[in-house]
Amino acid sequence: MLADGYTKITTWIDQYPWLDMLSSLLMLLSIAFVLYFITKKFVVVGLRRLISKLPFVNQDIFANHSVIRRIANIVPALFIINTINTVPHLSEKFIQLVQMLAQAWIFLTIALSIAEMLNIFNLMYQRNPKSQNKPIKGYLQLVKLIIFIVCGLMILGTFLKKDVFTLLAGFGAMAAVLMLVFQNTILSLVASVQISSYDMIRVGDWIEMPSLGADGSVIDMSLHTVTVQNFDKTYTTIPTNRLVTDTFKNWRGMADANCRRIKRSIFIDQSSIHFLNDQEFEKLRKFLVLQQYLETKNVELKAWNETVNDLMNQRRLTNLGTFRAYVKYYLSQHAGIAQHESLLVRQLQPTTEGLPLEIYAFTQTTAWGEYEDIQSDIFDHLLAIIGEFGLKTYQAPSGADVSGLISKHISEND
């Protein structure tokens, strides 16, 4: 009875070959899905637990990447490659197409897994303090590019039924075209090697490149680009090779020295510069910081003047020279100024805006806010006290000045 029933079912199915093919395909896909589920839930989980016990593996980084999970994608593809030919009523061309697609899927999965492993390696390397000096992200990106090129050739060879070496031999004739296509990659690779070899920039460096509008900190260095976060919180992406061919300023030396330069001038009205009279001399002697300077200078000038008979050639103290001595002493006692670095108070070439008295010094800190506070405090004090020396700062006349002069002139005429 059972044999007769089986024979009838078989006979009925033989009348509908598409049904036999469809049922076999569904069974094949179901088994492939079960294998995928088992691999993902048991094999992958087991491998993760095994790898997590290794001392050099960082759990936070490893948990966010799917290297092992991709293994679950390979198992069903291997199963389909080896069992698709058992499905009845399938054409030979269709079986070959499915096998080639499954094989291409395996190649792509392996390439993605290797790329993911390189990402993990880069993240682990970046946690090493030495990675700031020698970033490897650009080199890893080059390795990824080679891997994906090889993967693409293997997939292409699978569909063309040719091995990779044959394809490479064919591409050899297209070397000029390939060099043109990968021109930027080659230039970026050479630039990355030069930047790394000469230690030109590091992640965290403050660089300034006006030609590309970059003025901020380097936050990422890759094969093709270097990303700079500007101080206005915008981002500038610089082609890697431009850092070798163009000029840029790196402020790392300032950070390493832990001091920052002040180079700023006070423009003095030249008409206010004069010799000190006795009243002004006695007034300035009340400044404790100037007592020693004035006494020493007075003795020096008297000794000089005794050797000069001509009154016109005798030397005398000036209010500008005394103010310059005051500024230098003031800076030498300032807690925010680095005393081990250069400290100058000098006159520059006179201009139509006045006589520049330049302060050249270095602060004890490189922090932007603290630096600006120190610089502002110094110039606040100097601008406020300059009048005690009988000096005036230059300021171009404004509309209010002109209006005041006109009003004064009218009132005097009335």
UniProtKB/TrEMBL annotation:
GO terms for molecular function: mechanosensitive monoatomic ion channel activity. The keyword Transmembrane applies. Residues 331-392 form the Mechanosensitive ion channel MscS C-terminal domain. The chain crosses the membrane at residues 21-39, 71-90, 102-121, 142-160, 166-193. InterPro entries: LSM_dom_sf, MS_channel_C, MscS_beta-dom_sf, MscS_channel_2nd, YbdG. Coiled coil: none annotated. It is found in: Endomembrane system. The keyword Membrane applies. One of its GO terms (biological process) is cellular response to osmotic stress. It is a multi-pass membrane protein. It holds the Pfam family MS_channel_2nd. Residues 184-252 form the Mechanosensitive ion channel MscS domain. Keywords: Membrane, Transmembrane, Transmembrane helix. GO terms for cellular component: endomembrane system; plasma membrane. Gene3D superfamilies: 2.30.30.60. PANTHER family: MINICONDUCTANCE MECHANOSENSITIVE CHANNEL YBDG. Belongs to the MscS (TC 1.A.23) family. This is Mechanosensitive ion channel. The lineage of its organism: Bacteria, Pseudomonadati, Pseudomonadota, Gammaproteobacteria, Moraxellales.
